[in-house]
Specification:
This protein is an alpha/beta fold and 284 residues long. Helix 7 runs parallel beside helix 8.
Length: 284
Amino acid sequence: MNKNKQICWANSSFDNSDIVVLGIPDESGSHAIFSGASAAPDHIRKISNSNDIYVEKKLLCLAQPTKGIGNVQVHDFGNIKKRQISNILEKILGSNKIPISIGGDHSNTVLLLKAMAKKHGKISLIYFDAHPDFVSHTRNYYGSVITDSLDCIDVKSSIQIGIRSPEQEELDNIKKHKLKVITPFDIIESGIKSVTKTILDTVKDNVYVSFDMDCLDPSYAPGVSVPVPIGVESQDATFALKKIVQKGIIGFDLMEVCPAHDLNDITSHLASRMIGEVISSCKV
């Protein structure tokens, strides 16, 4: 991969890395009103390099996330095809590294979860999204992620955050499987510290985090495939993310950024900063 296309956090070879970033520029599982999520991995890298690096006394300086990145070594693997996810994840996990994946549409997460479960067993999934993605009458697309991943997930120790646009079928499936859900109104009522404690009390081992950027209110992230008003604030979401990651995760993905429908690249820049905050909080 050309060096200028690497995300700015990348600073290491694969063998020496603790975290491996990979792009999955695939939206073949999307039925979204806005297309273009396949452009997100490279665009987030571009914005990462233009907005999170500055020049001071002729030296390039990285805009550090809170608490800095410490000694964490990060390698940008480049972009892969959807059909390569299983084999590439096997290589990454076999080397005891933490994968951070950038999509693409949310259906890519199914293959990521299957690969993670093959290595770790049942997963405690923390799923940030405006939609439950728990449709079951239709399969293998971005609205059936949870249904398609049930064999990989320990539902009792999993949780969804930011849900506010469910279909009746999804509500029925949530009730049937007793999946815990936190809405934006729950966050307002209880506060992000209390909600984060609930998240951490719910999950067990093998914690995987999947973050659909439409979890956030469109005022913070307008450039997504399916924007939904009355969402989570970016500060609250990032606070929770950092606390989750500090406790320990086995992987993270960020999906559904749609650069063509963004406003001054604020969604891609926020995605870049959130990835930096995740990296800065990782236990390795």
